[in-house]
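Hello again, I could really use a second opinion on something today. I've been puzzling over a protein and I'd love to understand its fold better. I'm sending you its amino acid sequence along with the backbone structure tokens. It would help a lot if you went through both lines with me. I've dropped the whole record in just underneath, so have a look.
***
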Amino acid sequence: MKPSIDIGARRAHRRGVAFIAIAAAAGPACYSYHPAELAHVQPGEQVRVVLEDAGYRRIAPAAAADAEPRLEGRFQGATADSLALSIWIGQAYRGTPFQTAHQTVQLPRDEVIRIERREISTLRTALTAAGVVGVLAYLIANITSSPEAPIPGGEPPPPPPGPGGEGGMIGGFDLIGALRPLQGR
């Protein structure tokens, strides 16, 4: 006889997986980048600079050929012919004291296609918060409805009886029964 499959439990599991996937995908999505005029960008602001391919290859020669030619970092300032960007280079040093290392690079203005300012996105933040609340609600609902959880207002199930009404069984082995012959010594 095949065991019956609880369709409701399956649907709940699928919803839970969907909530977790949405929360994971939306987690870093609280921010978005919007084009900005260089004159309005302040030093220290988080920006993304889109470069011409040649300029990007000069800065990141080991980057994949299909990588989008852009750099993210903190804007440091600009001169008449270049702008300075502090970029994180610590990904190559994870697990070492250098994992937080940054490097300031000078980008010639004629290689810069556009500069984008990082701004908080209210819609994405709301969707992320809703996803987190959904995941928490799913987890709480599944934890409180587990078969081992006591029914509210009910009594907990009795412990399984051992031989002779004692709870001496350990993994199918009767520990108390095995020790009885030693009691008389």
Observations:
- Strands lie at 31-36, 46-51, 70-78, 82-88, 102-108, 112-120, 169-170, 173-174.
- Residues 79 and 109 are 9 Å apart (CA to CA).
- The chain has a mean pLDDT of 76.
- The chain is about 30% helix and 25% strand.
